[in-house]
Sequence to fold (281 residues):
Amino acid sequence: MEAPGRIWFGYVAAVGLAVIGLFTLDPLAFGLAVAVLVATVLGEWYRGRQAALSAAAADTDLADLVSRWVRGWAYARGFPRPAAVPGGVRVEVGEPGRRVEWVATDDADTLAMLVDTARATPEAWLSVVTESPAGVRPWFVEAGLVASDGEEALMSIQLADHAFRRLPEGYRAEVDRDGGVITVTVRVGEDVAARGRIAVIGADAVADRIQTEPDHRRRGLGGAVMSLLVSAAREAGAVHGLLVASEMGEPLYAGLGWRARASLVTARSATPRTSVESRHG
Fold:
């Protein structure tokens, strides 16, 4: 109720100043009345616009969330723009053991085709976002794909609802911007203690590679990095956040207000294992 209260106060103040100007014939009072009225109208328009963007971002289906997350994730990592395919998107990752990756939902009409395509493609990954991981894994087995252990979680949040965590004493943060990609690096002395990035595309902000060095864990650095990234993303115009969290990272994000929307399970074509990480976060 705070925002409507401020709006009505602005209208009342503008009328009050206009009345004062009418009785005193003071041009300054009239000028202030006009300025307050213009500021109030613009403020109301801006808050309405932000609310509309937030509502539009939240009112979406899983396939759209997947597409938006992949677009931001690829942008954050410098991959080529993802290409839409039936049931999902295709990303040219270009890493050893992970040349190409498909990210899709568990729609049965398209998943059968994608598992066959991944099986026939060297160094290919297939990641499926689903509310039923146990129902997807048999597709991997039947196709002869090698499934990764564990699951990740696709999570989202309205950035205005994100909890704030301060940087602990003794640490300092550096915030860098490269186009729509914002990077936060936390240092103690000259050593890197934690880091992370977030890619802003339109109203979406996609967090990626949030990492804390082993010697600095359990000190609140992950939450502080996320708070700095979200603050910078909001300044850049983002209103809705997306990320994929590992099983270890999910409790951190949940504590900051992020909500799990679905699980993500990954498999790869049967090629020799590499040191490439299976995580997307």
The chain has a mean pLDDT of 87.
